[in-house]
Design a protein that fits this description.
Number of strands: 10
Number of helices: 6
Strand order of the largest sheet: 1-6-7-5
Oligomer: single chain
Number of domains: 2
Mean pLDDT: 91
Order of helices and strands: HEHEEEEEEEHHHHEE
Largest sheet: 4 strands, antiparallel
CATH architecture of the largest domain: Orthogonal Bundle
Shape: elongated
CATH class of the largest domain: Mainly Alpha
Radius of gyration: 20 Å
Low-confidence stretches: 218-223
Strand content: 15-25%
Length: 272
Amino acid sequence: MPELPEVETLRRALLPLVVNKTCTALKFYRKDIRFPIPQTTLLNQFSNQVVSQIQRNGKYLLLQVPNGAMLWHLGMSGHVSLQNSMTPIEKHTHAIFKFESETCLHFVDPRRFGCILWVPQNGKHRLLDNLGPDPFSPDANARTMKSKAKNCRSPIKTFIMDAKRITGIGNIYACESLYHSGINPKRKAGRITLAEWDRLLSNVRTTLENSILAGGTTLRDFFDPNGAKGYYAVKLSVYGKEGEPCPKCKSPIARMIHSGRSTFFCKTCQPH
């Protein structure tokens, strides 16, 4: 699943391709993906408009034009490929957006958990309205997160993966950040101290930054618009490494199913 670093990698790759460029054509090959695609609205509001900027909110991308923004989410397996044709190249191409200089962006999503939507000029949308702060936002600080977690009995891993608390932290980066912070994934969020929150958030940002610089994790389904894969997976410490020696203490990395997801951690380095 594309996580925050993959989405930020895509955002940065798209900047020179579409910012200050006019969308000259749109073509859709499905009426819906995860949600119905507002085709008429997009044709009326986004077509022939100049993209002024591309913003990221958690795992969502917003392609801003004067009267609103087109909202993208890559879902579980989506990617965007750069082509020079309005003809679908890959199976599961659901939409194509053409910009000046014959730049064609193909939105591909085999499992159809992504979305292509419209956000009005006021920026209000039900998918965005209840999101917590982005990990890189000043609002994602230790005091704020400790306050949010007060009396919370949910495991800390579940807490930081809840987009209503803090947005954009997926399974891979939750495991990695908790490991580097020495915090057990099962520990109750309400019992994390202020100092631990400070350390955890610092490690979240460092882990995400390193992955962004490396182009995202090597997920089978993710590519940047130029077809390049991410290469951060080779640097992961615990995720996907069950039974391998811990980089710090050499104890075997453990795996457990946690809220329906695999959680990887070191019992020695993350005792509580």
